[in-house]
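Project outcomes to date are best conveyed with an example. Our students and postdoctoral researchers have been running inverse folding experiments weekly, and each run begins with a structure described purely in tokens. The record below, which covers 219 residues, was selected by the lab manager from last quarter's runs and is presented without edits.
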């Protein structure tokens, strides 16, 4: 699964993974991170998610990273915002009052790019990677985040033999394996969502669970 896959999906408008509404777990569980409204939030593989606007409306400076310029342009157009765009290292750096998006490869991020970040919201990033890349994703996240940075993580779980992702199935056992012992892993919510998502049933799934996790740094 490389960047070309996602670039093609955005160019062809094959973006069934995009949620047009604010994620309900973000609304319900974001206070569990303990962040104050003025603290900056990182949203990896952000696409054109309206969740960034929700966070910004609550006072958080938001930093996203997204490989597709189509997605980044769409976010600002749909929010009726004209960003300032500059070249910054490997990235085209889009900036507005509350939302900054670095257009480029997540793995090109460095710790200095996230120097102000105090929390992470991951709805569609970890589950976008096949198993072989998920550990690399988490290892890089640890490298670029300051110690103590809490994470609100949303995942999907299903019988992996029934569907070829993305999105990929990531269960609680793997979450613990990926993030512990550096993080304490707490499952805040698990819910069956197959009935509300019939397109996944058409793809062959017999079960689909969405979960929300709070990842707290162990000192």
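After processing, the design step wrote out the following sequence:
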């Amino acid at each position: 699964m490389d960047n070309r896959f996602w670039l093609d999906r955005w160019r062809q408008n094959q973006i069934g993974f995009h949620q047009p509404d604010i994620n309900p777990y973000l609304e319900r569980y974001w206070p569990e991170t303990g962040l104050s409204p003025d603290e900056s939030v990182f949203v990896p593989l952000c696409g054109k998610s309206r969740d960034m606007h929700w966070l910004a409306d609550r006072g958080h400076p938001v930093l996203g990273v997204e490989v597709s310029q189509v997605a980044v342009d769409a976010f600002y157009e749909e929010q009726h915002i004209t960003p300032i765009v500059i070249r910054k290292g490997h990235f085209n750096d889009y900036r507005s009052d509350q939302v900054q998006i670095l257009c480029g490869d997540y793995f090109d991020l460095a710790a200095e790019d996230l120097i102000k970040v105090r929390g992470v919201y991951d709805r569609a990033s970890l589950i976008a990677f096949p198993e072989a890349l998920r550990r690399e994703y988490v290892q890089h996240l640890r490298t670029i985040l300051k110690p103590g940075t809490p994470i609100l993580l949303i995942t999907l779980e299903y019988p992996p033999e029934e569907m070829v992702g993305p999105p990929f199935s990531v269960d609680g056992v793997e979450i613990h394996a990926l993030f512990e012992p550096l993080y304490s892993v707490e499952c805040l919510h698990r819910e069956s969502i197959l009935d509300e998502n019939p397109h996944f049933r058409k793809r062959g799934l017999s079960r689909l669970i969405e979960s929300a996790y709070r990842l707290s740094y162990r000192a």
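The two ends are 34 Å apart (CA to CA). Helices lie at 3-11, 24-29, 51-57, 69-78, 131-144, 172-179, 198-202. The training component of this project remains on track.
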